[in-house]
Write a sequence for this structure.
């Protein structure tokens, strides 16, 4: 995805200190020209970075790299109605999908799930949040694909952009950024053991925990 590539390039510049904490990025017109991309594509990439907490878009002032020294210790972010709807949908659909996957999975499916966990851990260790979000997305996509149910896969495909965006929000919570790895491992263990009840419960726990890390409350889901 082009926008992911743009976001990753900007993330690298931020992590390397080319855009220091507390400083503004170049204006969008200049930045788009420097990167050789269109302004709409740049705006979408900036939106991804903002959702991850890597930049702060201030209306009429510009785009800034947050300074950790000036940030509150708690991770709070505005949660849109669409984000609530995404997590409500996920909580309804994904525990069932995990239960079914535990019955239908092959050894190759297990290896694919383990691969996403390995790559997500590496990305988080390296501070590469965009890659981590993609591997998180891939993990859940693989579970849906195991079912070989076109209704499930088509529905997920139509909502992929909203799901991807919602999966960014929990990673703003820096204190619990590694938690999804533990939760994914529990889901994999249940699918490996072909335990539908455990797989469903582990997935439901994971979706609820991710929603709360993303700024929702128990009442929202």
């Amino acid at each position: 995805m082009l926008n992911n590539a743009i976001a990753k390039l900007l993330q690298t510049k931020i992590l390397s200190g080319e855009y220091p904490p507390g400083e503004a990025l170049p204006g969008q017109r200049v930045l788009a020209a420097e990167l050789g991309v269109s302004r709409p594509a740049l705006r979408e990439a900036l939106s991804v970075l903002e959702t991850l907490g890597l930049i702060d878009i201030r209306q009429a002032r510009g785009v800034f790299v947050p300074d950790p020294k000036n940030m509150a210790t708690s991770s709070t972010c505005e949660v849109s109605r669409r984000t609530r709807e995404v997590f409500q949908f996920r909580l309804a659909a994904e525990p069932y999908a995990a239960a079914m996957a535990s019955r239908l999975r092959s050894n190759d499916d297990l290896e694919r799930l383990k691969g996403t966990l390995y790559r997500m851990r590496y990305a988080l260790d390296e501070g590469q949040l965009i890659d981590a979000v993609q591997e998180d997305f891939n993990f859940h996509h693989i579970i849906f694909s195991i079912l070989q149910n076109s209704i499930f896969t088509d529905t997920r495909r139509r909502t992929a952009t909203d799901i991807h965006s919602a999966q960014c929000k929990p990673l703003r919570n820096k204190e619990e950024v590694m938690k999804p790895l533990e939760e994914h491992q529990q889901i994999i263990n249940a699918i490996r053991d072909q335990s539908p009840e455990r797989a469903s419960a582990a997935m439901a726990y994971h979706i609820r925990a991710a929603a709360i890390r993303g700024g929702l409350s128990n009442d929202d889901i």
Observations:
- The chain has a mean pLDDT of 89.
- The radius of gyration is 18 Å.
- Residues 2-70 form a domain with the Arc Repressor Mutant, subunit A fold (CATH 1.10.10.10).
